[in-house]
Amino acid sequence: MVRDHHLYITVPSFFRCPISLDVMKSPVSLSTGVTYDRSSIQRWLDNGNNTCPATMQVLHTKDFVPNHTLQRLIQIWSESVRNRSGSVSSPPSSLPSQEEARDLVNEIAKKSKSCFGCLSKILLFAKEADENRKFLLKIDDFVPVLIDVLASVSTGCLDVDIGEQVVKVLDLTVKEYELKERLMRLMLDCTTGDCLSSIVLVLQRGSLDSRIAAARVLESIAVDAESKLAVAGKDMVLPELFRLLSSDSDKSGIEAALSCLIAVSITKPIKLRIVRLGAVKQLGELLCDFNTHGSVIEKTLKLLQTVSSCTEGRLAMCGDPICIKSVVQKMLKVSNVTTEHAVTILWSLCYLFRDQKAQELVTECNGLTKILLLMQSNCSPAVRQMACDLLKIFRVNSKSCLSSYDTKTTHIMPF
Fold this sequence. Notes:
Strand 1 and strand 2 form a beta hairpin. Strands 4-3-5 form a three-stranded antiparallel beta sheet. A two-stranded antiparallel ribbon has the order 1-2. Helix 6 (142-154) runs antiparallel to helix 7 (160-173), helix 9 (195-205) runs antiparallel to helix 10 and helix 21 (367-375) packs across helix 22 (381-393). By secondary structure, the protein is mainly alpha-helical. The chain has helices at 38-46, 68-85, 98-109, 115-128, 130-138, 142-154, 160-173, 180-188, 195-205, 208-221, 225-233, 237-245, 251-264, 268-276, 279-288, 294-307, 311-318, 321-329, 336-352, 356-364, 367-375, 381-393, 398-401; strands at 2-4, 7-9, 27-29, 35-37, 65-66.
């Protein structure tokens, strides 16, 4: 209960952090479902604890996710209290005005002790509306200031938590930033520090939402061959993206990691590194997961299609029956994009490179039935041609290869 000018204000208990007992400014939820103020739970975890303070359950992951719904409720409640009494104990930051946002950017450029607080307010401002993000991008040197601050994280001048705030702001505003090539140049040509090293630190030490934002920023700056090579060639970028890919509890993290890996996988050495990091096994397991749907399946198959263009990738896929089986299973009933990626993978393995092991695996998992069904669907001419090529490869005799295709429908074979 808060006393102010002879008024008593009751603070809802779920607005208070279980650790500090103050109204939460940045509520985040652990895997146990309990929500804490970000600064309080971060200190708890940084002190070496591996349990949830409220339940004392052992944490299987120390990642936490922002509770945007609760944050918005606290903000609405705080505003209503201010309207009644003019103040409240530990209120969350109010939304800055446009003029205040301009002043905050100038303050961030100084890299002072208030840098984290200023970035937090800018992040709140940017989250509120598209109009706010567009306004920020019209401020002179807004993006260069963020890049300069981010670079300082790599030199140790600023803490990683500041880098987390920067990548989250960039993730929100880069979509509005039409000149992505300029953003890429600012990052790669920065002389005050190494922006890519700072992003790696965020990927290694940041919260889950910060790591997701970092992956999206890396994808955004991978706009040409030079930048793609720079991102993929940076130490620990690929391993950290695969670590994010394994965070199967969060679809956003998996999707962000896949998108970035697809964007940078342009040369054979990069594809080889991806294969050696265990991509085929991990992607095959992802396809097997019944909770994997839609765009994640499409991007998983797209990355598998990419690695299948190198010898090492094909060998890894042919040595992993789960992967081939999963590709065959996803060939139909997901989306046209998924069908195209799956058929292209099988066409590459079985027809283009005539891999005997791949052909055997496709036959074992009833792939011919699906190919025949695909031929009768409303697929694209390119997919139809690849399916036709695959059927020619598997033409041995109808009894041995197509025995499982037992219906009363008359089929005209394309050969």
